[in-house]
């Protein structure tokens, strides 16, 4: 009641505001429960609305709502890899991974259901949404390696480099799932550093047999700090290689 004794006016939401509210409620549920375990009644209760109202905005039911939520989550994931093109490459990768892994940590069960498959609400459309995120992430990494962003004029990276970057994106996804399955161990900082090391190792292995990648690596290493991740990795790897000196 207001001070005048009348009930406060009900605040109506616009169509976009209501859709945003319902998607946010669904995402909150999908973040911690597999999509098949979330009902429209759950979404309605979380949003504080009736089930018929959810159907009014999403007449396709849970499938339509799930896809809308997935697109919203995909937009967030794509932004994780968007990073200013300044500073050493490893610094940019670490910043992108911090955002990506924080998303995984927050949306653990939903992330597992999304990437592991088997959900009753998965379709070719949902797979396309996930694949778009993977391609966007790969495009961002290639951008930081000196290639034009997708859709703009510029040289296209060679096959081996493209495969290296896309393989690493797959490694990041798979490692994230294993990390969740292992009760979120090791700590996020250690996981991030290991993934940066893994990218460097993949890049160097490709550079050993690909002139294009070798040139990119030389340019990238030129601006790395000796006390940074590359120098640290080199100091850890050299003793191991030295022990196998008979192979050289």
Structural class: mainly alpha
State the low-pLDDT regions, or none: 1-10
Percentage of β-strand residues? under 5%
What is the total domain count? 1
Biggest β-sheet description: none
Overall 3D form: elongated
Helix tally equals: 11
Order of helices and strands: HHHHHHHHHHH
Q: Average pLDDT, to the nearest integer?
A: 84
Quick structural gist:
With 248 residues, the protein is mostly helical.
List the helices and strands and how they pair.
Blueprint lengths: L14 H16 L9 H8 L3 H7 L3 H20 L8 H18 L1 H9 L7 H21 L14 H23 L6 H20 L3 H12 L6 H14 L6
Helix pairs in contact: 1-2, 1-4, 2-3, 4-7, 5-9, 7-8, 8-9, 9-10
What key attributes describe this structure?
248 residues, mainly alpha, Tetracycline Repressor, domain 2, 68% helix
How would you sum up this structure, described in words?
The protein has 248 residues and is an all-alpha fold. It has eleven helices and no strands. It has one domain (15-238): Tetracycline Repressor, domain 2, CATH 1.10.357. It has helices spanning 15-30, 40-47, 51-57, 61-80, 89-106, 108-116, 124-144, 159-181, 188-207, 211-222, 229-242. Helix 1 (15-30) crosses helix 4 (61-80), helix 7 (124-144) packs across helix 8 (159-181) and helix 8 runs antiparallel to helix 9 (188-207). The longest helix has 23 residues, at 159-181. Mean pLDDT is 84; it is low at 1-10.
